[in-house]
Amino acid sequence: MGPSTMASLEGALSGTLGARIRLLTTLPSQPTIEGTLFTACPITNLVAVATTTSPNTPPTHHILPISSIQTFTLLSAPSSSNDFSSPPNTTPPLSNVPIAALLARADAAVARLKEAASRKNKNVGKEAQDLFDGISRTLPTRWDGNNIVVMDSVVVSSPYRGEDCKAGSGVAPNTLSRVRKVVDNERKRFADRERRTVVPAVPAIPAVHTGPRKGG
Questions:
Q1: What is residue 178's DSSP assignment?
Q2: DSSP characters for 30-92?
Q3: Phi and psi dihedrals of 147, rounded to 5?
Q4: Distance of CA 136 to the CA centre of its chain
């Protein structure tokens, strides 16, 4: 096929993009191709034909050189349903952003952060903070300065022992007893933990006497 013939065929193919065509080729593997013309490139001198087995299956693209085409038959005009030049619009529709719900979630997150920060007292030692954390696992607890307030009725002051628990007027005696028991159990747990982590003392190495040196 000469250059002028190839250019003429390329021009004819370019004018029928999206049309259904039949090509007879010199390719042994693809002597006849029938499908929708996808593209005809004048730079690479290649054409692409899309074929499908059913409307619901994606197309298969066959790429072949224009020089291999013997005959070109137009079977049907271009159709929008056969337009493979652009992919279908698969972008999902945008929904309204629930601003109120997002603000509520943000407020809840900030409240949780503030609550967590209020449970940490930078003005007390580690043992007092550990005691607070231990009591709060079973009873509602908050800080009031350096005092631990349990159940909004019992105040545990430094040095935070069972006998340091004081209840206000009108508080049931069993409430005070319960808080004292929790405090004593937590402190006992601290003591047990310290005993388990004590590093045993290394025995001293006895001195070795070599006696007086001979010869001076």
A1: H
A2: -SEEEEEEEEEETTTTEEEEEE-SSTTSPPEEEEEEGGGEEEEEEEE---GGG--SS----PP
A3: -95, 145
A4: 31
pTM of the model as a whole: 0.43
Q: What is the pLDDT along the chain (216 residues), one digit of tens a residue?
A: 555 555 567 777 777 888 888 999 998 888 998 988 888 888 888 888 888 877 788 888 888 888 888 888 888 887 655 544 444 454 555 556 677 887 888 888 888 888 888 888 889 999 999 999 999 999 999 999 999 999 989 999 989 999 999 998 888 889 999 999 999 999 998 888 878 775 556 666 666 555 566 555
Surface-to-core class of residue 172, CB atoms within 10 Å of its CB (0-12 exposed, 13-18 middle, 19+ buried) = exposed
| Count of residues making up the chain | 216
d(CA 205, CA 42): 95
For 34, 51, 120, 151, 182, the CA distances from 169, given in Å and listed in that order, are 97, 90, 28, 14, 21
